[in-house]
Amino acid sequence: MTTDAFWIWLLYFIDSDDNYEYAKQLIFNSLILKDCDKGRRVTNISVNRQQKCSHGRIDFIFHFTFTDDNSTHSVLFEDKTWSNTSTEQLTGYKEDYPCLYRYCYYKLGYTNIQELKIVTGCGYDIITAKMMSDCLARFKDLHILIKYYYDYIKETFTDYIDSFESELFIKNNFDLLWEAQAQLFLADKLWYALPKTIRNNCYIQNGTSSGRPWTEIVLIDDEHITSDYQESIFWRIDIRSGKFYIRLNQYSWYVDDENNTIWKKKQARLSSLREVGDYILKTYPIHLKKGKPTDRGCFEQEIVIFFLEENNWDSIFKDIPVFTQLFINIYKSQTEY
What is the pLDDT of residues 144-153, one digit of tens each? Predict the structure, then answer.
């Protein structure tokens, strides 16, 4: 059963019989109603699924009526399992369906800080798998489908996401980082450890390379270096030679001439950035063990690399923020190389 199909079935089911009023009130109080409306009874639930609009196709919109004043309201639902959303998608839906009672974003997988910023910034209220499973736990035996769905999201999402903390930081189970959700979880932890001035000006992004997930904390985005050269600087969580790492990368996309003029400038720039990294590690009380950077790549190349299994978590969370601040300070003081 798909996520929106379960929601639609559940909404109709809990509104079909007065014997289910307890479950309906729990769902609405816990997940749907605004704080000022919690406790108010609802009725006459109806659902419009896969609504087309100028900005795409909305998962579903449902309508309900408050019994005390007979007023009718509508709630837009966008649901995701693993994928993320965009500002354009969410704001577009609100433009097509303005002034609704609520806009809900239901996400089963891990919701990282970047996604949360987008969702809340667009005026949507997030519903997580944990919020849903906690609510369903109180009436999961009301129907076999509710029990099946509860078991599914609790095991596959809620319990799995809750395990990240102990699996990574206590058991040192780095294999967990083969999963994009766990990488985003680690990136969030590192992001929160950074000084606030840096957090305010960086963002997290993720993707895949040949089916393998990677996650980045972008510190410098398209910094103008010379008239023909811009670069980005970011921490990247990934794997090399069977070992997971966090590395500081230099990235620039460019179209070069036959003499490789820009590539040569980029290599000179990379050399100077590596010197900055080495200077910080030698000069300041930072207890991170540096790995050997490779010289592979044209657009993206390694400045410094720290393999996770060679560095304890205390040092990673204490020293990477310090290293980052020092690196950015020196970087910003060098307008050209």
Answer: 999 999 999 9
